[in-house]
Amino acid sequence: MKKNEINSIEIARIAGVSRSTVSRVINNYPNVPQATRDKVMQVIEQYKYSPNFSARIMSGMKTRTIGLFLISPEEVFHDSLTNSLITGFIESASNQGYYVLTHIIRNTRDSEVLRKVKETFYQQRIDGGVFIGAANHEPLIEELIAEGYVVGIIDQHIEGRNEPNRVICNFGNDQGMKQGVDYLASLNHRRIGFIAGDPLRCSGPEKLEGFKAAMRSHGLAVNPEWIIPADFSEKSGYNSVKQWLSHVKELPTAIFACNDSVAFGALAALQEAGLCVPGDISLMGFDDHLLSSRIQPALTSIHVDFAEMVDTLASRLIKTIEEPDKEFKKYVGTTELVIRESCRAI
Amino acid sequence: MKKNEINSIEIARIAGVSRSTVSRVINNYPNVPQATRDKVMQVIEQYKYSPNFSARIMSGMKTRTIGLFLISPEEVFHDSLTNSLITGFIESASNQGYYVLTHIIRNTRDSEVLRKVKETFYQQRIDGGVFIGAANHEPLIEELIAEGYVVGIIDQHIEGRNEPNRVICNFGNDQGMKQGVDYLASLNHRRIGFIAGDPLRCSGPEKLEGFKAAMRSHGLAVNPEWIIPADFSEKSGYNSVKQWLSHVKELPTAIFACNDSVAFGALAALQEAGLCVPGDISLMGFDDHLLSSRIQPALTSIHVDFAEMVDTLASRLIKTIEEPDKEFKKYVGTTELVIRESCRAI
DNA sequence: CTGAAAGCGCTTACAG
DNA sequence: CTGAAAGCGCTTACAG
Q1: B31 and B116 part of one domain
Q2: How far is CA A333 from CA A77, A118, A151, A175, B177, in A?
Q3: What nucleotide is nearest A37 when CA is compared to C1'?
Q4: B1 inside domain
Q5: InterPro entries, alphabetically (chains A, B) (predicted)?
Q6: Contact indicator for B298, B345 with CB cutoff of 8 Å
Q7: Of A76, A83, A100, which to mutate for an interface test with B (greatest number of B Cβ within 10 Å)?
Q8: Is the CB atom of residue B53 positioned under 7 angstroms from any atom of strand C?
């Protein structure tokens, strides 16, 4: 039933040349006279011939395909931020003529899965890969980079690892935390809590340190009781704050959440406990999630540009694949305070 | 730098067997004694050997990869519904051990792009493909199906086309429109307008016909002046309603939008014109978009289960790829009325 | 400028 | 149960 029976031998025969010449035409080699080129092209057009993909790869050509690996233990269908990260990346790559091979990794401890991911690189199914949601020191990623593959990573920083095939995209967490704390301080808050993100991810500790530094710069004390451990999910925001409320002795006047999803969860927990935001306690997020302007109260947050980030990531990755150089590339996205309704002056 | 130098010849040599036997072990053929199998497996494990992907395809094996083609003339990064469709599909496929090769098609009239999509099938980069956002009669899709490829399509219905390699997933548009009109009628609305979707897409005319049929069943007249043409985007909802308001003589008491995105746009246009929803006019959507419960007023809508749909689509497509049969498969998702605040009794 | 031939790394009849 | 060999369809030195 399916038939793409025509191959380069047939094309060569019909055009009255050799396969070598057909190949030269296909690949736009310069050493083919225009007349020959035209003759061959015409046959190619006529028979709608296109060279077999696998055969080309077997002879060492590039795949023009990028692997996109999303690490997420949980279902991701309803997480609009992750979704737009994925789609945004595919969109950028598509615009540059690349296909994206996406796979979701549930568990980075499952050696079978790890094996399959590495095979994707080994078998030349992809020219390079991108990881989203990985721990900062994920061994899988470090191995791939050590082996010379081009790897893009969102949210990673490892001191002194500056290989040219390591393409990093982060946001300015220090800057963002400072903008948030500056704003809260300007509203006269001095007792500020922080919901911390996943300590294994780069931005978890980075945001926590940024928070502490920003507090110090205002001469404000960081109360360890008000550092609430969580990860980056809405659910963890809810659970952590709920549990924290059950034992905390004295409340801060404001809480800074490591991201907006966590803030949504925190908001639900606070409201459930009968606390009004921002009446009783101010709440600030980070990311400027799609929903943040829609919820009640609209969430004050730190805006970051995910669309630009994934676009930059795709472009740099492709550039590194096509023209490898010796230069290490690292993108740090800017952050911007967006004032809405969830924080009030006291 | 990159090295996966070991191949089946080496493995065979080290294990003291032939490549044929190595291949038999890899592919789990029954005619290999356990002792031989163990011996070979041990060498494979030891050298972390994995057979070259392209070479396997060249010898006729499956790719375990599905193509996902999203047709969208516009940027899709901020469209959370499309995003979750894509991610949901990838998620389902991943769970079944398949990779998804995604590409975004900006323009189905660009023959260069069309060519590349078809090549993806011809070159056996994928075992089957899925199209989202296609016109009901998209020739590209019909050609691929005619050539025997397994193709999944969201939102298509062509009378009499029941090939077993055509995997269709729709929602019950008739049923949904009826539920919506029934509800509006129960609120005593008799003058109901409709914002129609893209006429080239299957669900565009289907919803319009469903609307008319439902109106008839209540003995209500359909005023042609209140049928507002649009496509399925928020922007078109806004523009169409804005323009419509500028010339419509008399307003209906309720408007049914072909989907929630369009309803969001319509809502903005109505509010801009000083009309209050639902005070002055009731508004009803379709899809139960992630945002519908969050906006002001929360949008009454027809709920459909996209997550289940893409999951079903992935499963059926994979089943059709792996065990082709003679049976035509068509999924029709159920619809359910979700009452919120945007419609009032009159 | 161009062709014959090697090489890429598998799988699978075929023969034993 | 197992191996030698053909075949998949390209690209690219190599030689002319």
Answers
A1: no
A2: 26, 29, 19, 10, 45
A3: C1
A4: no
A5: HTH_LacI, LacI/GalR-like_sensor, Lambda_DNA-bd_dom_sf, Peripla_BP_I
A6: no
A7: A83
A8: no
Distance from CA of A249 to the nearest CA of B (A): 34
The residue that minimises its CA distance to C1' of C7 is A59
CB contact under 8 A, A87 and B77: yes
B77-136: pLDDT as tens digits: 677 788 888 889 998 998 898 999 998 888 888 888 888 898 888 888 899 999 999 999
CA–CA dist B72, B263 (Å, integer): 20
Number of structural domains chain B divides into: 3
- Supply angle C-alpha B165, A101, B152, rounded to 5: 20
Angle (deg, nearest 10), helices B234-247 and B260-272: 40
Paired tokens of A186: 């300007």
Best residue of A96, A99, A102 to probe chain B, by most B CBs closer than 10 Å? A102
Say yes or no: A103 and A209 in one domain.
no
CA distance A182 to chain B (A): 30
C-beta separation of B257 from B196 below 8 A: no
What tens digit of pLDDT does each residue of A115-153 get? 889 888 888 889 999 999 999 999 999 999 998 899 999
Instruction: Give the domain extent around B29.
Output: 8-58
Find the mean pLDDT for residues B314-339: 90
A-chain CB neighbours of B122 within 8 Å are 2, 4, 50
How confident is the model over A17-35, as pLDDT tens digits? 999 999 999 888 988 888 8
Cβ contacts of B94 on chain A, cutoff 8 Å: 102-104
The DSSP output letter for A74 is S
- Alpha-carbon gap: A22 to the closest alpha carbon of chain B (Å): 17
> Cβ of residue A32 near strand C, that is under 7 Å?
yes
Backbone angles phi, psi at B287, to 5 degrees: 125, -30
Residues A147 and A294 both lie in one domain: no
Q: At what angle do helices B34-46 and B19-26 cross, to 10 degrees?
A: 90
B130 contacts B141 by C-beta, under 8 angstroms: no
Q: What is the CATH number of the domain that holds A177?
A: 3.40.50.2300
In a shared domain, residues B37 and B117: no
The string of pLDDT tens digits covering residues B238-295 is 999 999 999 999 999 999 999 999 999 999 999 999 999 999 999 999 999 988 998 8
Backbone angles phi, psi at B256, to 5 degrees: -105, 120
CATH number at residue A13: 1.10.260.40
Q: Are residues B143 and B22 in the same domain?
A: no
One domain for residues B69 and B156:
yes
Question: Do the Cβ atoms of B149 and A2 come within 8 Å?
Answer: yes
